[in-house]
Design goal:
The complex is a heterodimer of chains A (476) and B (316). With 476 residues, chain A is of the alpha+beta class. Chain A has 3 domains: 6-198 and 319-343 and 412-473, no CATH class; 214-308, Rossmann fold (3-Layer(aba) Sandwich); 348-409, Dna Ligase, domain 1 (2-Layer Sandwich), CATH 3.30.1490.270. Chain A has helices spanning 25-32, 36-53, 81-105, 110-113, 119-123, 171-184, 186-191, 200-210, 234-244, 281-284, 300-305, 323-326, 329-337, 354-362, 388-400; strands at residues 6-7, 11-12, 72-79, 145-152, 158-164, 222-225, 247-249, 254-257, 260-265, 268-272, 274-277, 310-312, 344-345, 349-350, 367-371, 380-382, 405-409, 415-420, 423-432, 434-437, 441-443, 448-452, 466-473. The chains are: A alpha+beta (476), B mainly alpha (316).
């Protein structure tokens, strides 16, 4: 039994199990009334459904079965309407500030001039695209889908773990988890008034269409650009294309001619106005970035800069979600919006700073250390869970390139009851909501809850054995 | 529709039809080899591999045609791009790429075929009967075909699938018939003998067309009747005429939908006109093998035109 953590159903763990927080009230009977064999049956049913839809996830670099399923935990994670309202405000605020920052640093750079963020962190950042300087994308939006990873440590304590301004993935799980829960447990949805999330694809399409370039007259043609079917998130790309009713293209399907981008169709070339790309900046255009890229479109950046096509997220957006820049997001909120941040950052030590580095090296056993440019739980040290040997190996790497690392305290992530082999037990969770930024700033009530299914584990990444849950927001 | 999507759909159909043919070839081969023929089963299998264009790869890997090796080669071997396993895997992979252009039922048929194939591959080879394998392939092909016909939108994608099916089938029918040529080549005097008829019947049986043939023609099985049935008769679902008419029909639909005629339509119409004006006598005068070779060449050229116009993305 995990102790000392905030459990979202029962409050402080170790407290009386009889106590149930209001949002979870109706789930108590549901789980008590479910016999073990029914549970097993439902779990198998869910797995069959997932496999049938083909929603699988290939783990980077692990090889093995490319059709592996992400474990789905049927016990939902629930927010009250009031809790969500607060989160929503904070998320939107943050998404606005991040976009204002991007427009600024590719423009006059007021925030740097004002000395609120070190110039080095911005302009010498690997994610800072010099090719984008002086260009303002339509509606002044760089990051159209902002995925903000949030953890909880108490009833009112929420922290942002990191921002994802480029192409956050996982939204297909948010939608499919809900579909499957509704199919398997319709009664639950009758008893609880749960806000729907299925408008996401339509909202996404509207957001993308709203940032069509000025040269586009009439209904814009939107496409999703995928690296191809070998990519681990390919399922999501095709799923979204399908639900939005837009073409899913690869680089080879597009070409540049005149001032526009065209796609190759059976009827001849068709003009493309908005590209929701799911490939990295460096692969977008071999003429501008990596010359060896087979995934991109030669000449794309020229068309982009002359206003012939919109790219979402805009090239260069990555400078805002860099883990070293992350520390300054609250400062961005104050600077651009003149507001106090509604969502807090996790206290963070920059290993590039001498004082911070000293502290981190002395406290490796209790900290989480992350690579600044890493993702997906790789290149990461969870001090309290690591062996002495792992800590020493990490210490050496850190000493060599201190600027590549940040450290954070090991947070007491909240838990949610989950179905595990022994029955129902608390497991740590995080949350990734997907904020849409276009003409409007929108958020569907929900997100992706990831759960660390291994007892005691704090790593929720699907590449590290994490699972997913349906995330409910109750109507007030 | 994206040219690449059209290309994937076209290849789903071609690969599935090709898997079906490889299974049928296996059946023809094993039946012919059961014959107490004058020149032994080796040359029978050899002819079969020649006709299917898979002889070279087989010789390189296995050498002499031994029944068990032939089964491996035609069914399981991933080194053979036309083996059942290769084709089903490729069809499913093409399907995975264009999931959004398929209905759940069509994807299910493709995916189930692939999953079951993996189960078959794990089974002890000695526990697998040849007839079980060939029946299984034909069933999977039929399930996919059924799902396509029952659930898919009749749009341009549907036409590209059908064009793939018909083109592959035309090529396969021609090649299966050509097996006869290779089998009989060493002994021309067999033509018209009892042995000859048995082989023709086996061929019909492998195409699942034996009953249909008897309904359509009745009486004695002759080479002329069979050639008429498999080449010219528009009632036979595998005849060259049926296949070319199918291609021409779907190309005409595309031309109408897209509002333009291309060289692909011209070529298909010309091939159909040729077939309609053809007679069995003239085919035999030319020589069956010569006729079929010419047809296979024309069909390949038509495939090339379809690729150039619709699938390559080069259309302006």
């Amino acid at each position: 039994m995990l102790t000392g953590y905030f459990d979202e159903m029962h409050g402080k763990s170790g407290g009386k199990a009889a106590e149930v927080r209001a949002p979870y009230a109706k789930l108590k009977n549901w789980v008590q009334a479910m016999p073990v064999d029914l549970r097993t049956l439902k779990q198998a049913e869910a797995e069959t459904l997932f496999r049938r839809i083909g929603i699988t996830f290939a783990v980077y670099g692990e090889g093995g079965d490319p059709d592996r399923l992400i474990p789905f935990d049927m016990f939902p994670r629930v927010f009250s309407g009031a809790e969500w309202a607060r989160l929503e405000k904070g998320i939107k605020q943050r998404a606005r500030a991040l976009n204002a920052f991007l427009v600024d640093v590719y423009g006059r750079g007021e925030i740097v001039r004002a000395g609120r963020i070190p110039a080095r962190l911005v302009y010498q950042n690997a994610a800072y695209e010099k090719a984008c300087v002086g260009f303002v994308p339509p509606k002044g939006v760089y990051s159209h889908i902002v995925g903000i990873d949030i953890v909880r440590t108490g009833p009112d304590e929420f922290f942002v773990l990191e921002d994802n301004c480029r192409t956050p993935s996982g939204v297909s799980y948010m939608l499919e988890n809900r579909e499957i829960m509704m199919r398997m447990f319709p009664d639950l949805f009758r008893e609880n008034r749960i806000e729907p999330v299925d408008s996401y694809p339509e909202k996404l399409r509207r957001t993308l269409a709203s940032v069509a370039p000025a040269k586009c007259k009439g209904e814009p043609t939107v496409v999703i650009l995928t690296p191809g079917h070998f990519n681990s998130a390919y399922y999501e790309h095709s799923f979204l294309a399908d639900l939005m009713g837009v073409e899913l293209v690869e680089g080879q399907d597009l070409f540049v001619e005149g001032e526009y981008v065209w796609m190759r169709t059976t009827e001849g070339p068709k003009r493309v106005d908005v590209i929701y790309r799911r490939i990295d900046d460096s692969y977008l255009d071999p003429l501008c970035f990596r010359p060896d890229s087979m995934l991109g479109v030669p000449g794309l950046m020229d068309v982009y800069r002359s206003g012939g096509v919109s790219i979402c997220s805009a090239p260069g957006a990555g400078v805002a979600d860099d883990k070293a820049v992350y520390t300054y997001v609250p400062e961005m909120v104050r600077f651009y919006l003149g507001e106090e941040p509604l969502l807090n950052n996790v206290p963070t030590w920059q290993c590039g700073k001498a004082d911070d580095q000293k502290y981190v090296l002395e406290h490796l056993e209790e900290l989480v250390v992350k690579e600044v440019h890493g993702s997906g739980g790789y290149g990461m040290l969870v001090g309290p869970k690591a062996s002495q040997a792992q800590i020493e190996a990490f210490r050496a790497k850190l000493r060599e390139h201190p600027g590549n690392y940040i450290a954070q305290p090991t947070l007491a992530l909240s838990t949610v009851p989950s179905f595990v082999e022994e029955g129902v037990a608390p497991r740590h969770v995080d949350l990734r909501p997907y904020c849409l930024v276009g003409e409007r700033v929108e958020l569907v009530p929900g997100g992706l809850t990831r759960v660390a299914l291994t007892e005691g584990s704090l790593v929720v990444n699907s590449s590290q054995g994490g699972g997913v849950k349906d995330t409910w927001v109750l109507a007030e | 529709m994206l040219s690449r999507t059209a290309d994937n759909l076209y290849w789903i159909a071609r690969y599935m039809e090709r898997a079906d043919t490889s299974a049928r070839l296996l059946e023809v081969g094993s039946r012919i080899s059961l014959l107490p023929s004058a020149h032994g089963y080796r040359s029978e299998w050899d002819s079969l591999l020649q006709a299917s264009g898979m002889a070279e790869g087989f010789a390189k890997k296995y050498g002499d045609p031994v029944q068990r090796n032939l089964e491996s080669w035609l069914f399981f071997d991933r080194d053979n791009p036309s083996s059942v396993a290769s084709c089903i895997t490729a069809a499913r992979e093409n399907g995975r790429i264009v999931r959004t252009a398929l209905t759940a039922q069509v994807w299910d048929a493709l995916n189930s075929a692939f999953q079951e194939l993996r189960t078959l591959e794990r089974r002890e080879r000695s526990s697998l009967e040849l007839s079980e394998l060939t029946d299984w392939v034909m069933r999977q092909a039929a399930l996919l075909r059924g799902a396509i016909d029952a659930t898919l939108l009749r749009n341009d994608g549907y036409s590209f699938l059908n064009i793939g099916y018909y083109l592959e089938r035309a090529d396969n029918t021609a090649r299966l018939m050509d097996v006869k040529y290779y089998v009989l080549l060493p002994r021309v005097e067999f033509v018209g003998s009892g042995l000859d008829n048995y082989q023709w019947t086996t061929l019909l049986r492998a195409m699942g067309a034996q009953r249909a043939f008897h309904w359509a023609y009745g009486g004695e099985v002759t080479a002329a009747k069979i050639a008429d049935f498999l080449i010219l008769n528009p009632q036979c679902p595998r005849s060259l005429t049926t296949c070319v008419a199918g291609i021409a029909n779907h190309l005409a639909r595309l031309a109408k939908a897209y509002g333009r005629q291309t060289l692909a339509q011209d070529q298909a119409r010309a091939m159909l006109a040729d077939l309609e004006a053809e007679s069995v006598e003239r085919i035999f005068d030319e020589g069956l093998h010569e006729y079929l070779s010419r047809f296979i060449g024309n069909a390949a050229a038509l495939g090339g035109a379809i690729h150039e116009v619709y699938l390559s993305g080069e259309l302006r």
